[in-house]
């Protein structure tokens, strides 16, 4: 019996079709990984390569002439660290406020007993297709007294309709019996929302937080529109844009022949718009890349379950 049991424990050889499928699957996933990682690795290599040498091309995933001059040039700006702090503040405050307010509104319009739920939902959805335009928005922000104010980064985008629909769909997928049991025990709507709905909505809230955080971190156009005259409220993205514009202006002052001639010189401190753009991309995307692994396990679940109902 022991011999028979030992034979049964032996792994049966895979069929030829199964092995071919595994090989093809591994090959496809490997190629997909290379295609996905190559743009980032190439940008990182350019940012760490000598700017004049990068003009020659031929940089792939490994720098040809290592240097940190591109990062030194960007970090040498006096306002860059203060702007980074403002970007962090607007990202954290904006994300927390948007997720919380969107969750409250989503819970309200998900309740069957709310008689205006369809009207309010349609009113929100219409804002995704109809926009007042740049000038009316600017006049509204001015009349609200948000020009040269930190809160102009927070209040206008406090409720995101796309995020609202995702959270509402997730809440509608929760078992209604849980909330009914809580009501029988005497729980009100606030208790249901804070003690039952919010904990159960962790996956979708993490997904919305990722969307909102990336949006807040990457924004620079609202700084240009409303706070460009106030250097204390400038963000990292806006300062990086100004550095790139200054680099483009300096480069355009030279002729093409001078640019290629300088490529062969020994000026190690020279930077180009190409190298600055790569450095900006790495500097701006690094915080999001560091945060994403902690939210990844919630991201797929939140998008899948939140999209079950429309």
Automatic annotation (TrEMBL):
Keyword Metal-binding belongs to the record: no
Membrane topology: Multi-pass membrane protein
Protein localization: Cell membrane
One GO-annotated biological process of the protein: transmembrane transport
Domain spans labelled ABC transmembrane type-1: 84-295
Any one of the GO CC terms: plasma membrane
Family: Belongs to the binding-protein-dependent transport system permease family.
The name this protein goes by in its record: Carbohydrate ABC transporter permease
């Amino acid at each position: 019996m022991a011999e028979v049991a030992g034979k049964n424990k032996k792994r049966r050889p895979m069929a030829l079709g199964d092995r071919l499928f595994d090989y093809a699957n591994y090959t496809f996933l490997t190629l997909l990984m290379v295609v996905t990682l190559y743009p980032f690795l190439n940008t990182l290599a350019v940012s760490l390569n000598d700017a004049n040498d990068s003009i020659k091309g031929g940089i792939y995933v490994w720098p040809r002439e290592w240097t940190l001059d591109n990062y030194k040039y960007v970090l040498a700006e006096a306002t860059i660290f203060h702007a980074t702090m403002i970007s962090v503040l607007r990202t954290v405050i904006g994300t927390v406020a948007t997720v919380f307010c969107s969750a409250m509104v989503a819970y309200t319009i998900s309740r069957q007993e709310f008689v205006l739920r369809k009207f309010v939902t349609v009113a929100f959805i219409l804002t995704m297709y109809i926009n007042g335009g740049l000038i009316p928005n600017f006049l509204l922000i001015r009349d609200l007294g948000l020009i040269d104010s930190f809160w102009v980064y927070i209040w206008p985008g406090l409720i995101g309709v796309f995020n609202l629909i995702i959270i509402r769909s997730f809440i509608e997928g929760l078992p209604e019996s849980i909330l009914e049991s809580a009501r029988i025990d005497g729980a009100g709507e606030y208790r249901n929302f804070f003690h039952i709905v919010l904990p159960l909505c962790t996956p979708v809230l993490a997904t919305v937080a990722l969307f909102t955080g990336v949006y807040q971190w990457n924004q620079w156009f609202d700084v240009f529109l409303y706070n460009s005259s106030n250097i204390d409220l400038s963000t990292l993205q806006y300062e990086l844009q100004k550095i790139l514009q200054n680099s483009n202006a300096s480069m355009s002052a030279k002729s093409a022949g001078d640019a290629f001639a300088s490529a062969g010189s020994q000026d190690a401190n020279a930077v180009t718009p190409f190298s600055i753009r790569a450095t900006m991309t790495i500097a701006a995307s690094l915080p999001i890349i560091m945060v994403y692994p902690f939210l990844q396990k919630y991201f797929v679940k939140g998008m899948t379950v939140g999209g079950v109902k429309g």
